[in-house]
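Hi Q.,

Before the meeting this afternoon, I wanted you to have the glycine prediction in hand. No need to reply - just skim if you have a minute. The sequence and ligand are here:
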Amino acid sequence: MTSLLEDALNGSIEIIRHNLGALEEFPESFQDGAWKPIEKERAAGHWVDGFWTGLLWLAYAHTGDQALRAGAERWTKRLAHLKTNRGTHDLGFIFTLSHVLAGRLTGESDWYENAIQAAYTLIERYNPRGEYLQAWDDDGIRKWAGRTNIDLMMNLALLYWASEITGDAALADIATRHARTSRLALLRGDGSTAHVADFNPATGLLLRREQYQGYSHDSCWSRGQAWALYGFATCYRHTGNPSFLAAAQTLADYTIRHLPPDLVPFWDYQSPHIPDTYRDSSAAAVTVCGLVELSAVDAENAARWIDPAKRILHSLCENYLIRDAKGPSSLLRDGARSVPANLMEHGLIYGDYYFLEALTAFTRPEIYQRAFAPGGRQAPQRE
Ligand code: GLY
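Predicted structure with the ligand bound:
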């Protein structure tokens, strides 16, 4: 009998095939029966593009299907031009899940050149006075040189990878300094996170921390919390710095304590409207992957992290997975891109990507190992 996770994996790959046949633009949200691209008027609008290539590469790794591989290659090449794009802090998301994944899964190291260039472009956003990577760019109304955000933690993996492959310690050093600043500026004592922090870019002095996609300045946006959990666990893997492990543990404990009965977070853990407000299935999927990463680097406490990870993933499969789609579709429903911007209750390409990464971790440890940690972190026990 195939398990819940195996069924979810097989159904997901079928949906990815439908999407490959239909998509012309990089997708972001699935609403009213169709994928919609993200607005690209700002360079930062590209931040979602690597999730689609990540889905294609993982689907290829699971099946060996040459049509999926050709699709993954074609869409990955469409991202190469972003390697010199100075307008986004998300080159880590984009290149790790396209070119780095391509090189790891095919064994062809030619893919790496563009990803290395992207890492050097990303560090141009580093402010040495505040020791942070800048999140947003000036938009004609406000200047944002002093702003960083919690999402940026997920981009550090590209810098550590590029540092290991080139031998250039400066890349890892910037990643570590940014993570240290984020820990001090964005993590609260109770294990929750703020979304953004503002520094004086000339002096590096911390001015304030706030929400942007969360409910209020004191609340905790659930996807941001998941980015932080995954990001700090990854930083610990690359540095062995115990403060990063402690941060990831505290973030995980807060998350687990605040999960609702069906284990899929509401969009903000502190929304006063819970339970009559919106879920974010993408926050759940990222949380599973963060807990898997934490269990791999924190072997002593592995069961404490893997057990909730598995239960959240089961709930996604049972309650949020779209089944038997006969055409293009998201894998998960009920993502919340941004409730303050009135964008919720739809599928999200990043929710789908981390859902497939999580399914891969639990069902195909050998693929997970090759894709995410050649010679490194362990996948959980296969079901
Ligand atoms: N990184 C942007 C978001 O999670 O919505």
